């Protein structure tokens, strides 16, 4: 007799030092079903999926696979059974090429047992074409931006026969174009009978692509709804346990007329003569397709990369920035798009990460760090951003993805900057927390702080920005006041059609 | 997550839970495990060779350990950033010889010591500049420096040891206070300074951060190159301290002084829990690591193991420590 469910997890519990991540959680999925796992940051979604893929072992509870109980010995075991996962945090080897990553552990060999480049390249090309991904198989992963790395991750998971595919926030770094591609891939897989577990904080996506939604709250089951019956508000109240109303950010003040920063014709690293300015208390959103140069421009401004030409003026005076430290000294804080590689020192504590950029402020006689100030600042941000930690001494690596992202935000806010450059600030953050972060950003702007927001989520930019700059192939192609902006105008500029 | 309150900071909890946490944390710490290992090794050696536990032997062993430990603390600082210093043995030698020559030429002993320390810092800084600003891998730079510095010793001394050392410095290597060898006291003082330096200052915080994630550290507005350069200066300084103490110990500056010590120093750091990737390890761990190395060396001598075997066994111990570390890490993830 065929079991009703392909996978059934019963009464799963998991305790970490200091936190109970899961308590008696049930979860099941059928063949050809797309189920969303929904919950706030730190609700236990990733932990549950790591148990299903053998990364962690549950403290109690059992897992049934096609009706039979299984005891996974490790990730390899799960993988050989056809359970495949795209992790929330990237797991690519950045020193290898895209194609080498695709077949890592399953290399194509020649008859003599050598690694076959020709065959690998051919297979990689086919796979990328099938998925409509425009990536050279030979390019090093370290040269790809977050969105492209994400596409490589997805391709990697699809390189083999999969029965269960788990996607932990695959869309958080993608723009709508790639998301559409991804969804069509998911539907094809579904027709082939693959069971897909989809984790995302973007409710529209969840409602669009899934069949059923399982909600977790504080490590416990608290809802199981058929997608066609669900509404956004219902899901939010299931997740949070209360209703959230103010999704929209309110500014109390218009930006001033004084210009804070003026960027004049800067070039370098794919950027072609970009010029723009930003006023005090203004929020400027940068829109564009993946690879259009938005984050590259940010990196040039803060001196993470050398610019070959151009000048930057602050308060009308030229500002020389050769290294990120010069940017910080000038009051420019930067939040990078890739929290794992560029934002956080994972093996260090919440406290040490939060205060990374403000050592100078904390420094006392003999370079000693003032404990009290450091504790106060850390506690302040843990409170303000509602970061779920059991102590400020928790190692950042053990935080949930969304809470790690909040640490990166805290780190940038702690600079108390005059200009804040945010690249994908809310990547992986849940609905409620996102609204709060947006409110914080709006409040900062009201206090005359200028803010640049780079986001692949157009809605986020529409929600926050006073003005939208659109980039296409390394150049700024449009400058649109928010009043005149709509999806169509922005997309046109983004594909270079103006 | 089933914690009652989401934001509980440790200092608001009742005393008993705090104590319990503290004890649990201490037991979980890597340092406790290797400390137990050290005790175990000492016990075994005492059983096989009872003369190990005599006060005279303990006195000599602890003194020997101090020399290695100080050099190990230097290379440990480098290892924290993900680098390595293979040249420390030669720096031990050259700073000893230079300061010995100064004394032999009649210079005031304090000035001679300072010049020896400056020599160590200078050689270390050259390593650092080449690693940081020229961008050569630490392994190659310091491997080259190992040879350059050792060769320079021979060029300067023509292979003869430097005698006529100022009597007033001998206590640094031979003296004692309250029955404790002076080198041990110096080691304790240096360790305390290095510990606070790494744990409580901005510089130390940055050293750990670089080892944890260099790019994130750079983007946080930290001058990574400067710090990566300075850790080699510190390593050079520590090697020089050891070098001068060894001159005092033997009442002459030997040309082979410090030869091969990079092995013991790096091993002490690794056994003590430092990760060669950088970003992990503690001063206490390094001290225990140095003690383990010293005790085993001494034990082998007392057990009359042949010198050939000794060398091979010390090598095995280092590999074993690395293997245990690997297995432990695998279990965690
Ligand atoms: N290795 C670990 N050690 C200690 N605590 C951990 C560890 N891994 C996860 N946790 C804790 O377990 C809880 C659940 O984390 P999990 O990563 O499953 O959340 P999540 O639902 O995926 O959240 P997000 O939406 O932010 O990704 C969090 O409070 C987290 O801090
Ligand atoms: Mg997660």
Question: Can you walk me through this structure?
Answer:
The complex is a heterodimer of chains A (498) and B (333). Chain A is of the alpha/beta class. Chain A has helices spanning 45-52, 75-80, 98-102, 117-130, 146-158, 176-191, 203-209, 232-240, 294-301, 324-329, 339-343, 350-354, 359-362, 371-384, 401-413, 431-446, 458-464, 487-494; strands spanning 7-16, 19-29, 34-39, 60-65, 68-70, 83-86, 164-168, 195-199, 212-217, 220-226, 259-268, 271-279, 283-288, 309-314, 317-318, 332-335, 419-423, 450-454, 467-472, 475-481. In chain A, the strands form four sheets. Chain A has a six-stranded mixed sheet with strand order 6-7-8-3-9-10, with helices on both faces. Chain A is globular and about 75 Å long. In chain A, a hairpin with a 2-residue loop joins β11 (259-268) and β12. Chain A folds into two domains: 7-240, Rossmann fold (3-Layer(aba) Sandwich); 259-494, Rossmann fold. Chain B has one domain (56-332): ABC transporter involved in vitamin B12 uptake, BtuC, CATH 1.10.3470. In chain B, β1 (176-177) and β2 (180-181) form a beta hairpin. In chain B, α3 (55-80) crosses α12 (261-271) and α8 packs across α9. Chain A binds chain B through residues 18-21, 23, 42-44, 55, 218-219, 302, 304, 323-329, 334, 336, 341-348, 352, 356-357, 359-360, 362-363, 366-369, 375, 379, 382-383, 386-393, 411, and chain B through 1-3, 6-10, 200-203, 205-206, 208-209, 212-213, 215-223, 279-280, 333. Bound molecules: adenosine-5'-triphosphate and magnesium ion. Residues 16, 19, 21, 39, 41-47, 88, 388, 398-403, 428, 430 of chain A line the site of adenosine-5'-triphosphate. The site of adenosine-5'-triphosphate (ATP) has 21 residues of chain A, from β2, α1 and α15.
